[in-house]
Amino acid sequence: MSEVKQKANLAKGASKNLVTLTTRQKNYALNIMADALLKHQNQIISANKQDLQIGKENGLSNSLQDRLAINSARIESMSEGLRQIVNLNDPIGEQLEEINRPNGLLIRKIRVPIGVIGMIYEARPNVTVDAAGLSIKTGNAIVLRGGSSALNSNQKIVKVLREALSTTDVPVEAIQLIDDPNRSSVNEMLKLNGLLDVVIPRGGASLIQNVVQNATVPVIETGSGICHTYIDKYAQPEMAGSIAFNAKVQRPSVCNAMETLLIHENFAKEHFQSFAEKYREADVQIKGNNMAKKMVPWIEDASDEDYATEYNDYILNVKIVNNIKEVLNHIDTYGTKHSECIVTENEENANQFLQEVDATSVYHNASTRFTDGFEFGFGAEIGISTQKLHARGPMGLPALTSTKYIIHGTGQIK
Amino acid sequence: MSEVKQKANLAKGASKNLVTLTTRQKNYALNIMADALLKHQNQIISANKQDLQIGKENGLSNSLQDRLAINSARIESMSEGLRQIVNLNDPIGEQLEEINRPNGLLIRKIRVPIGVIGMIYEARPNVTVDAAGLSIKTGNAIVLRGGSSALNSNQKIVKVLREALSTTDVPVEAIQLIDDPNRSSVNEMLKLNGLLDVVIPRGGASLIQNVVQNATVPVIETGSGICHTYIDKYAQPEMAGSIAFNAKVQRPSVCNAMETLLIHENFAKEHFQSFAEKYREADVQIKGNNMAKKMVPWIEDASDEDYATEYNDYILNVKIVNNIKEVLNHIDTYGTKHSECIVTENEENANQFLQEVDATSVYHNASTRFTDGFEFGFGAEIGISTQKLHARGPMGLPALTSTKYIIHGTGQIK
């Protein structure tokens, strides 16, 4: 039996056990895991050094090296993340509906674990800890397949976490890590219907596309974000400037940052020049449509491809538009249904935008940067779903649950 | 552009319009559709006669001919089904959560349409009407791909429904029927990411497996049912007999009928012989394990394959067991996670069964035959989901919705 299949089988076995655990038992294990990370941090950091060394030899970029690096502060933050999960409400067992039928049947809809989660992700080793913690809290077993560049770090982290579990009621086999760094192990996971109940990809567009294209196991797609901000004719200029600047500049590398700014012509005439200057001071490169270029001659041409690009960088498309219809069409054509914002004091335009724009999160007068589990008050997230089924937007603990109908009868027959 | 792609595009266009409709506009259209079916019933029945004629020539079985046949009573029932959908609450716009953040952001989670639903199904033409009605009520456009044996009937029904829509605010293009009877049109639908938001297969195991194996569009799997009833040592004999008989005999052809009866040895010793007699009187063929055969010599051998078969017929497997652990293992091995029942007066055993059996619907002291949208009080169902994500069990209107976060700010930035 292949490594992937063998570990998925062990995870499935563990998941049967996890279903029966109480919140207290799960929280106890999470705290022990948090302690163990701190206690064994030197081992983890030294395994991480190996990964960094290999990364340097293979020419891993500085920013990827930074994402990969683990130090004492990062271990502390992983450990603290587990303790925060302890403090979250346990969704398992929660009753979502209670139906009393005329024939006397009592039907209750209850939250239950999904079963076994497959997680496919890239370089950041903190995902290993977060995903394991969120899974255990929700009574799920997890099969982790991290990026090969973090293999040593992930192996050590998982070893530490599993050793911690061995002293608790949570089965050690609830956490599985795939050691095989070949792509074939990913592709094998994608076809494990009956063993994996869901696969969650987290990473770049090509990783996610591979999963979506090849999985026969259900997928929760976490996606890229080509996010827009629309400054309406009726926007308050100061607010508009502040939101548009924040959405691009505060942290351009993340999925909820803005890539394209749409501005109503009337507003742009008065304010776009000063906005552009402010972006220039922050070293933001601007590309624009003809109307934008007429107003600010130094900006470059924006192509269709630019509008369809998630820069994750200090680059911004600006399109001056004549009406909200144009805005809706643009977002429909180029958006990735992640986070979209309208800045306006006009309620009618706001409502039209909020209703007709199809995205996980639509904002009126606030920066798209807030689309995030912590900012929404969920406490932790396993990713941001950009698909329409099961979960949409930041995924907290309930996104890692399924449901089941429990029917209490007194001998009813049909 | 292929027929499938062209029609999916039209549906996507219509879906943008559907998002903006009020409940009143949708209900008006549903009533007009219901009227139109009655008014044009002769056309529909005569198109159906063509299908039946072709079916006979192609050797379509009597039971399939019966499923395919449309008469005046069946049209009335389709029409009545649409009016029942009118009376259901419209889930669209429903607020599921309201979060007030310390920074003043108001975050609301709202039910929205999924967008465009692809429906792939077999012979029964009433599914055409039900699926169209449920989709419109939930603001979704639908692309229907019915079985080729019902093509003439479906074409006429869809023509009538679309003509009805042309006098309403619901766009005609909200209902699309794929005319191409080749399997390639199904396979094309399965890859239409970006146009179809979900595919729902309804039909036999091979249809569903084809969809699950080949779709890159998210799927809601509606499944087969290998359902079990377990009669515990502590079962009330009369209740146990009545539930076990009903679950098998009342309508064996449906997915929530029982295929395998598990009986605790102690109970079986006293009662299995009389149960077996009752089944024999109802022409139910019984296959059993060794212990069962010892008690009732005339029953046949049950193989592993039998336990894994959805008979949908007057055939029953009986397995005598020694303890509940054996029951849980058997259901885990052979069940399809559809509907499972324990009959017992012992609360502890009941609770263990209800918690540990992994299925859409788990019953204590009631027949599995109740797993059904109408019986659960949902009023109508688009199918019974046997997967863990998005929707599980009978799917009413909320299963055809997605959600969206609407965030109201006053200039918040991060």
Automatic annotation (TrEMBL), chains A, B:
CDD domains: ALDH_F18-19_ProA-GPR (cd07079)
Compartments where found: Cytoplasm
EC code(s) of this entry: 1.2.1.41
GO BP: L-proline biosynthetic process
Pathway note: Amino-acid biosynthesis; L-proline biosynthesis; L-glutamate 5-semialdehyde from L-glutamate: step 2/2
Reaction catalysed by this enzyme: L-glutamate 5-semialdehyde + phosphate + NADP(+) = L-glutamyl 5-phosphate + NADPH + H(+)
Gene Ontology CC annotations of this record: cytoplasm
Role according to the record: Catalyzes the NADPH-dependent reduction of L-glutamate 5-phosphate into L-glutamate 5-semialdehyde and phosphate. The product spontaneously undergoes cyclization to form 1-pyrroline-5-carboxylate.
Gene3D superfamilies according to UniProt: Aldehyde Dehydrogenase, Chain A, domain 1, Aldehyde Dehydrogenase, Chain A, domain 2
The keyword Nucleotide-binding is assigned to this record: no
Name of this chain's protein: Gamma-glutamyl phosphate reductase
